Fold each of these.
Amino acid sequence: MSIYELFSRRKKKAEQTEPDPYRYDDIPEPLRNQIMFIWRDAIGAWHTPSAFGGSHEPPHNNQAWIFIQRTICREKGIVSLAGYEEAFEDCNHYLLQAEDIDDLLDIIEVSFRQIDGVTRNYNSHHRRMRGIRQEAQDAIDELNHRFREASVGYQFEAGSIVRVDSQLVHSEVVLPAFRLLSDPSFAGPEEEFRSAHAHYRAGEYKDCVTDALNAFESTMKAICDAKGWAYNRGARASDLIRVLRDNDLLPDYLDRSFDQLIATLTSGLPQVRNEEGAHGQGAQPKDTPAYMAAYALHLAAAKIVLLVEAYKDGA
């Protein structure tokens, strides 16, 4: 199926000044709802005591909800989050209604610190007593997955909410790769690299690995095409690197360290793809773990930055 390059798509590309695939100033409504579902499963239920009393109470974790509500109110100097008396309703409506991104991240961080530092330590009996249905680590993993899936650039790590672009590898490797590939000469590799990142955010890790490595190889082919350097159309990564080296794309004064770099280029990325993406998986489906997909994505980005900067330096 052919894809038409619509005016609106060209306009969007032309107006894009920041290549970062994540947003940092808003949490969309579907993500807020998903966080609310995680809260209810990982923090526990709320029980409103009956006016008539009673000896039996259903599972609930009122204490945790009251702690989250009071902590935010106390630190912000307010008496209520969203105008509701009960902590559970107050927290949930605040999550759904708050407009300021910092306010939202404050309550997400406090709530997941409660999950990470308190509910994580409950045994099965204590979880049942509080109506908790989701393990702490699973809740944190789901939150981070939902952030990535929604292209919202935050993660909960080591007890805190952090911006993705504050992570060194993202700010110093991934973003420069996006910026360099925005050159029209690298339209093919850019599309593959964006696809790899989209697969990563969606949790489609095997496809992420495949597209990341395709972007790496396509970058080398784009450089060869721009320079008029001949190569076999079915060339592998090692063949393409040989073409680039034979044409002095990269300085040879690096001596042994350059050979070590070539060894990484010829074994690191292709090895990941050969093992995780390109070949048959056998009788049992193989799951590509998130850390392997992240490694492939970041390693591909680093190599793309190296190659494109060398190309531009010698253009």
Amino acid sequence: MNCAIHIVDDDADFRDGLAWLFDSRGHKAATWAGGDVFLQAVRARLPDWGQAVVLLDIRMEPLSGLSTFEELKALGCPWPILFLTGHGDVSMAVAAVKNGAWDFLEKPFQNNVLVDKVEQALAAASAMSDQQRQAQRLRQALASLSLREREVLDELIKGNYNKTIADHLGITPRTVEFHRANIFKKMEVSSAIELAHKLGRYEA
């Protein structure tokens, strides 16, 4: 997954052609046959995103580009998303841009135009400040918590002890300890105080 450009399209010839194009321009690209396999690979790397751009075909089976985009947003994906669309899908692509996508290109497009847009998106991705990156990582870590872990986290930052949390949530103190350890690992902290400071610093 350590590629700068991810090409997600169910047309093998098309995505391989794009990969060749970017390779010829000095960019490392990975190809994915659909949104489902791409999302599976993305989830496996959380919360370490790095910098990348996604080229996403709007019409795919079994998971459409729009559905893939919504899943990426739910995961807190910071990567610019560039939709590749046919003529009949322009209105959907415009709506996606209004909903947070970087841009879209209508097929067929000129190679130079595509490369220019992707390079602009890569530049924007790398221009994020360290503060933004840290805040983004925190949001991603929070998104990775289960519902129960989020409940325990809310109790922890109130300063409650394990037994109190267990009483409030109707679980055993040992279960609280288990969730607490998972939370600390995902949030990359070693104490409830450090967790509270981190959440406060980035206003999560």
Amino acid sequence: MIVPDSNCLMKVKCRGGAVLAEIIMIVFIVAMFVSLAIVNLEGALDRENFKSRANELVKLFQMAGTSAAETGKRYEVIIDFVQNNYMLREITTGLVAVEDILEEEIIDTGQFSERFQVSYVLFDDGTWTNSKTVFFRVGKAGWQWGGKISLFDENGKEYTIIINRLNRMIELYEGDVEIKKPMPPEEMGF
């Protein structure tokens, strides 16, 4: 009968403990990489969430302008500071208060949130608000008023949507962008 050497048994026990320690270290390192990836992914999704929501609002304005030019119908994009939302509607019943809008006139709606905040609206005639409902109306001839919508993401970074009534362009910019005010008719030679 062969009797195992005591030194041999110690080596097996030591080797078994070393393997367990290596496995624990590998699991720990993998867990750290996974947690870093999750944190980076959440940050990217948050930024993407704001950008995608802001781009949705821009597309809403673009859709209203394009549809009005092609069909001759009138539309309005409503920014409601009280309800903290926005809406696109086809104007079929005339200019009415928000509470009197018919359900069948509503084309699309959206909600502002902590991650997608509206700060104020400034029209190109110099009037502005951050506390009531505003209406951007568009018909076949173009936008009734141009202006800008100031937005903030969850980190307080400012963005601006410019509604240009002269060239019908609707664009999203980073930062606080100035709007170009239209020239009075007398300065244009009329």
Amino acid sequence: MFFNFMPNAGNCLILGGGGFIGSHVADMLLKRGYRVTIFGKRNSKKTNLAHILDRVKIIEGDFNNDVDVRQSLDRIDYVFHLISGTLPATSNDNPIYDIEINLVNTIRLLNASVERGVKKIIFVSSGGTVYGTPTHIPISEQHPTHPISSYGVVKKAIEDYLFMYHALYGLDYTVLRLSNPYGERQNIFGVQGAVAVFLRKALNGEPIEIWGDGNTVRDYVYIGDVAEAFVNALETTTAEKIFNIGSGDGRSLNDIINLISTIHGPRIEVKYLPARRVDIPVNILDISLARTHLNWQPTTPFQDGVKRFYNYLNTQRYAQHVG
């Protein structure tokens, strides 16, 4: 095992860097001395980057446009691929679109990366969907992969293409199979991200809707810990290429509501809806490989991370109200 730390030693491109995960990865890269370029949609909001706009380069373009992607790779050493045009819950509605928007465009990115001499790609995969229904808990990287959503199928296909391009063309890579990140800057109006959506509804006094009986268990990991895992993956040379990134612990939706109720105070109304077939009952990741090879493990207890997120949202609401 060899840890190759490289402060002030590279130009990093974050595809989707203006998003929830990408903006935190940008923070961590800057903290460790890297030069950071953000690639995002034209005319997209820069809210998540407002605090670092004077320290990063912004490129606006379309991930569907091969010319835009190739130009963004100019003088880039390392690429963080965080762009996805679909969501797990809705990807099965149009698998062809999922393949075209995510898989085909990623293969174009790999071709361009080889041509431009990119040293390494860090790809965010999905620890919640690539394994499918688990045969054992916690789930290690050696667990069979039988995804039941197009989102997971495409993520796994991209992993396989990364292996192929590494074997044939020497393009180095690391895959991070991420569980369920939560924390500051997460979209609280989305259709995924239970912690974010539940916090928003609790603060607004709205009922929380749950698909099923609330006993669905997931692995939730704080975004600050996630960002550290991404940069450790960049700075680590190892034969292992695929890592689970999560907390290693499971919490049900009912557990989350109970914790939020404790933090928030006022009673929270919960409405239980019919369960969805796409929702796997339990998903908890084994993160021992990341501990061993990436020198990484989460350090933020769940209750502390949720409280930080709650306070952040409360502050945002107060600032908007005052403004």
